[in-house]
Amino acid sequence: MKLYKYLSDETFAKYLDSYLRGEVYFSSWRDFNDPMEGYFTYVSRQNPKEDIREIIEQKSRYRVCCFCKSYKKFLQWSYYTNGHRGVCLEYNINKTNLPTYIIIKSVNYTKTLPSFNSAASIEDQTKTFLLTKLKVWKPENEVRILGHNILDNTIQIGKLTGIIFGANFDISDHNGEQRKQVRQNVLASGSNYPKLYNAVIDRITATISRRIIDQ
Q: Total structural domains in the chain?
């Protein structure tokens, strides 16, 4: 499956070599920009406190990496790539090749926070809470990869098949040095190199397309 990750120019430059190896960083759910991230509701007089504590403990054992199903999301380019100055990375991920401690699922969007369910297992509820967001986030069409008790926060999750440079990438790379470095590293990697693209904005419809760069 194809998944896409939007990055700022600074983040891309800092971890370029890691991204070219197909690696991504898994972070704590507490580090995300949604203040309602990972939360759930429960009735204190009805739900066992030990179960609630166990779910909170289980959540801390997961690390999360977020993706999108498309590179054409104009708002994601605006929010997550420093005003179209960054990049969008395209990964080809084979779910059958992922380690058993890795879970990949689409995010479920709901009107209200999910509630504790005493009939469900602690483990299943923990994953549900980490894969649920409020409907205000639905346009992001997010897919999450969860890593349980991972030893290294940077993990290779698939093959990097494309790098899409934002429409304003040249602003942060006005001398072309970073783009040159990417091209050199990509070409040195041989037949498995990712394709390079420039993002193109339709100024009338505010839609995104991509144009391949002759390598």
A: 1
